[in-house]
């Protein structure tokens, strides 16, 4: 059973009573009534005559006529002068808007955009429609619902990558009407006019905040109301820790193993250092190929460049040790027979140093002469350089970690 309802368009009022639909509703089984069909039809004069004069069998066929809501509204408004594109009031109409975020499918750092599916709900009052006799319905409330897939821009700032927070946004506004005709507003009845139906989790990001705002923008044709939605995403950086930071730690630690191999294991130490440096470069390139080309330094850039500097410094230390070993080996040459080496120790202001004096013995009456005097210091031997490097390198790397994580911890937690 349907109650009577009416439409009023300008000076014309159209009223439909429940008697027009009663016979349609009673003759049909429940299984024959789809949920999306409005049962009943507007009967013209000929159908009304058939209703009164036809036999019961013919009535059963005629009563099964039904129409969708769109067809009924079109017939009701036919000839009334109602125009759905015309503003309900000359002073304009207020439209309340809600967004229901169904899903966010992707965020692309390369193209700086994101994709999402949302329900858009619009509500406004149309005085041309009269529902006063249908209490307790809301007065003249018109609804418009749409589910759309949209692509919006993101303002990507990768300075703190991979501990970064990104913001994406949407702008919703009327296409044809300025704010003198259509005033767009967020629905104030709902405290959250924009909300996610469920928790939004992406492989790289998590949605942490939604901020709806209203702005008024000036165009040549007038002032337009713009509904802005700012979506704040926090990066899920555990993947980058496992793929970048942890392998970097291991590579640097392996490069320090060369300090304990001894100063004469030059080939093995060289191979270890070069392989560690190549592994670091490969890791860095694997991460950077999935990021856009930007003109500023990122957090991951600082980490990788400093880590490669530590590995390169270990190769420099190896070159110094190898040079020391080569000098020591080249200094052990056979002495000429007329020179004699006298080794001893002598006190000096800088401590006790070993020295070597060479004398030339007199031959055929010549006087005794000095060949040369060579001082040899024992402070920077290859073994001592390796021992100091095994302490200095970890100490400096620990200081770098303290500074690095102290600076970026506010973005991480």
From TrEMBL:
Top-level taxonomic group: Eukaryota
Record keywords: Cell membrane, Ion channel, Ion transport, Membrane, Signal, Transmembrane, Transmembrane helix, Transport
Ranges for domain Neurotransmitter-gated ion-channel transmembrane: 245-326
Short name of any one Pfam family annotated for the protein: Neur_chan_LBD
CDD domains: LGIC_ECD_GABAAR, LGIC_TM_anion
UniProt main location, coarse: membrane
Domain Neurotransmitter-gated ion-channel ligand-binding, chain residue ranges per copy: 146-236
Gene Ontology terms for molecular function: extracellular ligand-gated monoatomic ion channel activity; transmembrane signaling receptor activity
Membrane-spanning parts: 238-259, 271-288, 300-321, 388-407
Topological type in the membrane: Multi-pass membrane protein
Record-given protein name: Gamma-aminobutyric acid receptor subunit beta
Organism: Loa loa
